[in-house]
Amino acid sequence: MNMDQRLTTIFKKDAYIPEPDLSLRIWDTIVLKQRRVTYRKRFGFLLVSIFSVTALVPAIKGLANDFALSGFGKYVALTFSGNGVLAHSWKELLLSMAESLPVMSVALCFALLVVVLWSLKRAVQTTISHPRFA
Amino acid sequence: MSTTEVRECIMQEKNDEELIALYNEGYEEAFKILIERYTDSLGNFSRRFVGISVIPDILQDTFIKAWKNIKNFDSRKASFKTWIFTIARNTVTDFLRKKKSVVFSDLERMEEETPFSDTLVDDAVLPDKVLEKLEDTLFLNTLLDTLSLDYRTIFTLHYQEEMTFEEIGKVLNKPMNTVKSYHRRALLQLQKMVTIPHAPEEEV
C-alpha cells in the first residue's frame, strides 16, 4: 500500500456519523424558508395588484372624461359618417384625431393595466413554480 | 409508496447536475436528495475545523447558502461537489472568523504565497514510521489542528474525499501547482511534527 492509499485509509477511519435525521431537519428548514419567501412574494404581488386595480378605476373614469371633453368621439363619428370627409381630407382628420387624443390618460391607464397583469402573473407563477412550498 | 417517494427513488439514480436541473424545473425533492448525498462528506470535512457540536449548524448554513445560490451554479465551471465544498469551506472560515479563532493576518498570509512555490514538484513521501504514528486518530487530529486552514483543507479533500489537486484548486481558488506545493509542504510539516514532536510550527 502506498502513502496516498494509507493516508486515505487513515483519514477515512475516523468518519463523522451525523444524527440520523440531520438531513431531514436541514431540508425542513429550507422548506420553511422557501415557504416564507413564497408567501412574502405572493403577498407583495397581490398587494401591488390591488393597489393598481384601485388606481385603475379613477384612471379609467378620468380617461372617459378626457375623451368626452377632447372631442375625439366627434372626430370618430365624422370618420364613419359616410359624407366623403375621410376621402377628401383624411390627413387633417387624422391629425385632429391625434391632437384630441388624451395621451396622458391613455398612457396612465395602459401602464396601470400592465402593472395589474404583471403582478397577477407573478403571483400565480410564485404559487405554481414551487407548489410544495406554496 | 406515495408518488413523492417513488419520485425520490428515481431521483436517487440521477447525478448531481441532473438533480439541479430537476430542482430548477420545480421538483423540490431533488434538492433534498442532494442534502442527503452530501451531509456525511461535508460533515467529515467540517469536523477537521470545528467542534462536532457545531457541525449541524455549519451544514445547515452551507445547504441554505447553496439553495439560495443554486440559480448561479454553472456546471461548465465546476462540478456540484467542488461548488458545495467551496461553500462549506467559506462557511467554516466565516464561522472561525466570528469565533476569532483565526486571525485575518493568518488567512491573508496564505494568499500571499511566493510564486516560486508554484513550480515545486509534488514528491514528498512520508516514511512508514510516520504513517504508523498517524494511524492513531487522536494524534492525527491533534497534528491537523496545528496546521493552517489551507493545509487542512487540502489534506481533508485529497485523502478523505479523494478529490484531485485540480478539484481542490477550484475549491481554494488557487492554481493546481500551488495546491500541489501546499500539499508537499503540509506533508513535510506533518513529518517534522511527528519526528520532532515539540518542534515549533513551520512558518507558513
Written overview of the protein:
- Chain A is elongated.
- Chain A is mainly α.
- The model of chain A has no long low-confidence stretch (mean pLDDT 85).
- In chain A, α2 runs antiparallel to α6 (103-129) and α3 packs antiparallel against α5 (90-100).
- The longest helix of chain A is centred in the middle third of the chain and has 49 residues, at 22-70.
- The relative contact order of chain A is 0.13.
- Chain A has six helices and no strands.
- Chain A has one domain (22-129).
- Chain B is mainly alpha-helical.
- In chain B, 67% of the residues lie in helices and 0% in strands.
- Chain B has eleven helices and no strands.
- The longest helix of chain B is centred in the middle third of the chain and has 20 residues, at 80-99.
- The model of chain B is unreliable at 110-122 (pLDDT under 50).
- Chain A binds chain B through residues 3-4, 6-8, 10-19, 22-23, 25-27, 29-31, 33-34, 129-133, and chain B through 26, 28, 31-32, 35-36, 39-40, 43-44, 46-47, 52, 55-56, 59-60, 63-64, 67, 125-126, 131, 134-135, 137, 140-141, 155-156, 159-160, 162.
